[in-house]
Amino acid sequence: MGLGRIAMDFSPLRSSRDFRIMFFARVVALLGISLTLVALSIQVYEVTRSSLAVSMVNVAAGGTLLVGTLAGGVLADRFERRQLLVVSRSAAALVFGALALNALAEEPRLWAIYVCAAAIGLIDGTSETALTAIVPDLVRPNQLAAAGALTAITTQLGTIVGPSVAGLIIAGPGLALCYGITFLATVVQVGLMLLVGRRPPADPGHQHPLSAIVEGLRFIRASRVITGLLLVDLCGVLFAMPYAVFPEFGTEVLRGDPRIVGMMYSAPAVGAFLAALVSGWAGRHPRPGLALTGAVLLWGLSMTAFGLSTSLPLVLLFLGLGGVGMMFSEILQRALLQQHTPNRLMGRVSSFWLVEATVAPAAGNAFAGALASATTARVAVAGGGLICVVAVVLLAAALPQLLQARLAGSAPEEGGDDPVGTAGTGTIVVEPAAD
Description:
The protein contains 17 helices and no strands. By secondary structure, it is mainly alpha-helical. Helix 3 (17-48) runs antiparallel to helix 6, helix 12 (258-277) packs across helix 14 (312-339) and helix 13 (288-308) runs antiparallel to helix 16 (377-398). The longest helix is centred in the N-terminal third of the chain and has 32 residues, at 17-48.
C-alpha cells in the first residue's frame, strides 16, 4: 500500500468550500475553548482551594451537556443546521464574554462560574450535534471517512496545544485573557459560519420532541449497522478508558511522580493524532465495519498489555497504540453512522452517539476505580481491556451486518455488490431487527 493511500485525505477541504469554512471555524473555536477549560478549573481552585469545588464545574457542565446533546439532536433535524450552529455559537460567545468580565472583577463570583459552565455544556451539546449532522450535507458520500478524520484531528490539536498555552497565559497576563481569547475565537467562528450556504431543514415537522427522540431510538433498534457500531464503541469507552486509575498506576506500579502520570495522560492523544495522519485508508477499506471492529480490538488489547506492563516505555507505547485504536474507531464510526442514517434522522441518531461518548467514559472510570480499589490498578486496567476484547468478539458474532457494512467509495468485494445508499438521502436500506 503506497503512502498516498494511507496518508490523511484532505480532499473534503479541497472540493467543498462549505466544509473548508466549517473546518477552519472549528479549529479556531477549539483552540480558544481549550484555554477556557483549563482556566475554569484553575480559577475555581484559586477561589475555593477545594478540589471538590473544581470537580463540581465538570458536574455542572456534564449534566447540561447531556441535555443539550439530546435537545440538539431534535433541533438539528427540525431546523436549518447552519442557522442552529450560528445561534448556538453566538450564545457561547456571550458566555465566554461573561466569564472574562467576571475574571476582571475585584472579587470574581463563584456562582457565576458555575452558571457559565452549565451554559457552556448546554450550548456545546447542541452545537456539536448540529455539526455532526451537517457534515453529510457538505461533502460527497465517499468523503465521509476523510471528513471524520479531519474533524477528529481538530479535537486532538486542541487537546495537545491548548492546555500548555493556557498555562503560559494564566501564569502571565492572567485568567481574563484566556476567556477573552475564547470570546474572540468564537466570534470569528460565527463570522465564518455565516459564509456557509443555507440548506432546508431535514425534517421540518411539528412532532413532539419526546416522540422525535423515540423515533430515532426505533431507527437505531431496526438498523443492525447502527446498533452494532454503538455497542462496539460502548465496549471501548466503558471498559478500555481507565483514566481514573492512571494516578495510582503511575505512583504504585511505575514508582513515578506527577510528571510520569502526565505523560500517561498525554500518550493516547499523541497516538490518536499520529493515527489521524495515516487515516487515508479508512474511506477506501472494502469492509469498514470489520475495520471498526478491529480498531476497537486493538484498543482493548492495548489496554490489556498496558495493564500487564511495569516499565514506562512499554506503558507509553501501549497507551499510544490504544489512542491509535480510539482514533480509527471514531473515524469509522462517524462515517458509518452518517452513511447509514437518513438525513431526516441524522441529528437524533448523532445525538445518541455523542451522548454515549459523553456518559459512558464517566461510568467506565467509575468501574475502573472501583475495580482498582477492590483489587489493584494493574488488574483494573488489564481486566477492563480483556472484557472489552471479549465483548467485541461476541458482538461481532451476533451482528454480522456490522462486519459487512460498507461506505460509498469503498471497494466492494470481488464478485459482490455494494449495497451502500447515499448519505443524507434517506434511501438507506435498513436491516429489520429480529423479533
